[in-house]
């Protein structure tokens, strides 16, 4: 389980390949638990003038690994990772994004690489 959480950060700039649903779910839960704890700590520790800068740093540190993880989940369903950009630009598309990354992935190898469950 710890390896699944770390894989999001060790592969933070890796937008190629595929990612398992289980790894994504664990990473998502742990990732956002830590994120909200950090936001709470940031609002109580930093003075108001520094909170905006700290928030930008926090979003970059946690946003990029999450973005790459979601792109790899799209690849696991044999979909292009560019759909994530549509979800970021049009919030209504986020429901469609959730419907694409949630179902069971394509089994076996697809155009984005081998099945991560067999590696």
TrEMBL record:
Coiled coil: none annotated. Keywords: Membrane, Transmembrane, Transmembrane helix. The keyword Membrane applies. The chain crosses the membrane at residues 23-46, 53-70, 82-102. InterPro entries: DUF805. GO terms for cellular component: plasma membrane. PANTHER family: INNER MEMBRANE PROTEIN YHAH-RELATED, INNER MEMBRANE PROTEIN-RELATED-RELATED. This is DUF805 domain-containing protein.
